[in-house]
Amino acid sequence: MNPPRLYTSLLAPVVFAAAQVVLGSPQTVEVWVVLSEPALASLPRDAANERAELRRRIERQQDDIMKQLAALGAVESARVQVVRNAIAVRLPTAAIESAKKIQGVTGVHVISHRNRIDD
Fold first, then answer.
1. Which CATH architecture fits 26-110?
2. What sign has the CA pseudo-torsion 44, 103, 32, 80?
3. Beta pairing partners, 108
4. What are phi and psi of 73, to 5 degrees?
5. What whole-number distance in Å separates Cα of residue 43 and Cα of residue 37?
6. CB 117 within 8 Å of CB 77
7. Residues 117 and 84: beta-carbon distance below 8 Å
8. Which of 12, 39, 102, 113 is 20–30 Å from 64 (CA)?
């Protein structure tokens, strides 16, 4: 008799996690790193000059902080600027506390759903 499909689908992640531990691979987690510069939506749409300047500041901040996150072992997967100023990264779990201490980082939130940033 074959095992029920549910058990088979649940078994794969467990086997993968066990293989990471046995092989010594670092455990990683996907997180949103929220940054201190305000999002573009904080300015009116008709404030073109101010929005352009804010976009430059956001991009500069995201680039600078991503360099520091990469030094902690992070791999970038996305950036957002309009509704929130944040970077999505896959980060070793041991580096989460260090990421929170980077100047300009206001929060580090585990991604529980790929299409939401309000965890």
1. 2-Layer Sandwich (3.30)
2. positive
3. 33
4. 100, 10
5. 12
6. no
7. yes
8. 113
